[in-house]
Design brief:
The protein has 499 residues and is of the alpha/beta class. The chain has 21 helices and 13 strands. It binds one DNA strand of 34 nucleotides through helix 6, helix 12 and helix 15. Its EC number is 3.6.4.12.
DNA sequence: CGCGTTGGTCGTATGACCAACGCGGTGCTATACT
């Protein structure tokens, strides 16, 4: 009862949503906890409420600045003053001040990168930490190995600051990812609260087409007839932009692109316009999604295949949060799997680059002690991208500390990368096989999460039978709000060869 | 890897053909400079 009373007085809710209470009780009893809750709201309550019941600070590790800002703001709107998003939006002076007065805050949002700074760690060590929260914890597994290595250091950080009670929150994690989370955080012995990842109101469909052109034509067609709002996912920024333009050319007025190459301001603008119903359609890369709280998205189309089933689930999971019928359509043409393979492989330094670095070290033996200052030189001459360099440097530094010979390190590195690439190829193949599956698509996705389809789903998937008509825009309504484009003229457009 | 784009060839008007080339995602931070 005490929990319910606090829920009412602090947050104004009269009842918990499924899962929340169990998770909160687990955390309050001092157990490390992994919680996998369906997408949508409700996860943040799992750390906010305990925060008010335990003495000390709540540290929340967040993957995105925008998420941090959002959540901090949200808490402040709710009357909480002792909140800080400790990130690069603060000036140097503000950071310094905040560090000195860290113990005056209740909720501290921070990125894995910032967390690892010595100045931050030494201050954190002095605190009495009530709860260590890892939000979107699948990032550990999904980003830690070859994109944001600081994600893999969370366990080390946790140890340094005295093994505080830890709560890992995510919406999608396979058994492997879950194991990864527990292992890297060092919480092998923990409580688990796992809820189904199934979203019965999202119909699943794969359309196999002959080639790129056919896919594009089908995309234009679908965007013209489907009930919006919708998201179309691409694995190329250029394609996302070109397609948004193409759809506008075909008459769709309220379409915008969204990708990581855009400046922060336009990204926020597009996102806000979409959330507030001023746009019907977003042509996006995987940059679009986390933190998007819009409950009436009716369809998600994939023009390119994602690199993992989980990413797919995350991306389509943005549809139908209101519980109404929605659809996810994957467009596939033979050869499409090459793009994700290429993306996965280009992420890590290749053998030739590692060999190049080996030669460079032979010519510059003094650099081994501290290779960091040579970053620009090495990057420029070996052709390593920023991400590749960081992954390389992280591995090199870690192994150097343990006193390994550089030749041995580079050899181990090659082997390690080879293993990573194999894993990535395997997960791409899983998506590929799923596309060619002849059995229920929901069933096979769920099986990746060790789940079974236990109820019959009315509009399940293209294999079980699906009426696309159920997802079309109501053409009778002369709704001036969203005249996406003139569907009747559409076929004629398609007959005109593109310029 | 395989797609689309680009630009050259042919040989005299337009477009068919082909080889060469480029492209391909996700975010944090600091520092020095304007």
């Amino acid at each position: 009862m005490r929990l319910e009373a606090l829920l009412q007085s602090k947050f104004g809710f009269s009842a918990f949503r499924p899962g929340q209470k169990e998770i909160i009780e687990s955390v309050l009893s001092g157990r490390n906890t992994v919680a996998m809750l369906p997408t949508g709201t409700g996860k943040s309550l799992c750390y906010q409420l305990p925060g008010y019941m335990i003495e000390g600070q709540v540290i929340i590790i967040s993957p995105l600045l925008s998420l941090m800002q959002d959540q901090a703001e949200h808490l402040m709107m709710n009357g909480e003053k002792k909140v800080i998003a400790f990130n690069s939006f603060l000036t140097r002076g503000e950071k310094k001040q905040a560090l000195i007065h860290l113990n005056q805050y209740k909720f501290i949002f921070i990125s894995p990168e910032m967390l690892y700074y010595e100045s931050v760690l030494s201050q954190l060590k002095k605190l009495r930490i009530a709860l260590f929260v890892v939000d979107e914890a699948h990032c550990i597994s999904q980003w830690g190995y070859d994109f944001r290595p600081d994600y893999l250091k969370l366990g080390e950080v946790r140890k340094i600051i005295g093994n505080p009670v830890t709560l890992a929150l995510t919406a999608t994690a396979t058994a492997e990812v879950k194991a990864d989370i527990k292992k890297s955080l060092g919480i092998l012995d923990c409580s688990e609260f796992i809820y189904s990842v199934d979203r019965p109101n999202i119909a699943l469909s794969v359309e196999r087409l002959e080639n790129f052109r056919e896919k594009t034509e089908r995309l234009v067609e679908l965007a013209g007839i489907l009930q919006g709002p919708g998201i179309i996912y691409f694995s190329s920024k250029k394609m996302a932009e070109q397609s948004a333009e193409l759809l506008r050319d075909k008459g769709a007025k309220r379409v915008m692109a969204y990708h990581g190459g855009m400046d922060q301001e336009s990204r926020i603008l597009v996102q806000q316009q979409f959330i507030h119903g001023q746009l019907d359609l977003i042509c996006a890369t995987s940059a679009f999604g986390m933190g998007i709280n819009k409950d009436n998205i009716r369809y998600v189309i994939h023009f390119h295949m994602p690199l993992q089933i989980e990413s797919y689930l995350q991306e389509i999971g943005r549809a139908g949060r209101d519980g109404n019928q929605s659809i996810a359509i994957m467009l596939y043409a033979p050869g499409d799997e090459q793009l994700p393979i290429q993306l996965a492989e280009s992420e890590l330094p290749d053998k030739a680059q590692i060999d190049w670095i080996k030669e460079w070290i032979e010519e510059n033996p003094n650099a081994i002690q501290n290779i960091g200052p040579f970053e620009e030189q090495i990057k420029q001459r070996s052709g390593l991208t920023d991400v590749q360099w960081r992954i390389f440097n992280d591995f090199f530094e870690k192994k150097s500390k343990s006193g390994l010979d550089y030749r041995r390190i580079l050899q181990e590195m090659k082997e390690y990368y080879e293993g990573r690439i194999k894993l990535k190829r395997d997960s791409i193949e899983e998506v590929y096989k799923w596309i060619y599956k002849k059995t229920c698509r929901r069933e096979s996705i769920l099986s990746c999460f060790d789940e079974e389809k236990n109820a019959s789903v009315p509009s399940c998937c293209d294999i079980c039978g699906l009426q696309l008509e159920n997802f079309l825009r109501n053409t009778n309504s002369d709704n001036q709000e969203s005249p996406l484009y003139d569907w009747k003229n559409h076929l004629e457009y398609l007959l005109i060869p593109s310029e």
